[in-house]
Amino acid sequence: MKIEYPAIFDPADEGGYTITFPDFPEAISEGDSLEEANYNAIEVLDLTLKSRMEDNEIIPLPHFESGANVHMVAPDVNIQAALLVKLNRGEKKFSDLARTLGTSWPAVSRLEDPKHWPSLRQLDKLAAALGKRLVLSLE
Question: Across 45-138, where does the E strand assignment appear?
Fold first, then answer.
């Protein structure tokens, strides 16, 4: 699963861009140039996802959207990892996964913490416990 969300980069009358995310009404930013707008889009998406994860709010599934002003934006890797764990864990309890992995439930719950940096080994073991496979890519 690829973690990218569509962002709308609307040209502003005074120059630059206003950035909005259809999936996250609270995520709004701007930038004077396309480069700055891209940077700010990542930053506001990171803050929005972190906030929603910490508050146990609903996070919509990523989807692709196209259009002249649409840019697909990926959050930081630690947020992507935490979100992938959360989305793929589903209704499985931390305690059940901890038993399967031979660790404690706090160790498993940290994998959904966007401030935690899990190792590839931890993510690979978790993927196997969920009946999945860890796949990496560089883009």
Answer: 70-73
Q: What is the pLDDT of residues 9-51, one digit of tens each?
A: 999 999 999 999 999 999 999 999 999 999 999 999 999 999 9
Output the pTM of the full model: 0.86
Residues 64, 106, single domain; the answer is: no
Q: Give per-residue pLDDT as tens, 49-99.
A: 999 999 999 999 988 888 999 999 999 999 999 999 988 888 889 999 999
Does one domain contain both 55 and 100? no
Q: Where are the beta strands (DSSP E) in 24-83?
A: 24-31, 70-73
Q: Is residue 135 part of a domain?
A: no
Could you tell me the end-to-end alpha-carbon distance of the chain, in angstroms, rounded to an integer?
Answer: 14
Sign of CA dihedral 73, 39, 134, 112: negative
CATH for 27: 3.30.160.250
E strands along 22-103, which residues? Answer: 24-31, 70-73
Structural domain harbouring 100: 77-129
Rg of the chain over Cα atoms, rounded to whole angstroms, equals 17
46, 77 Cβ separation under 8 angstroms: no
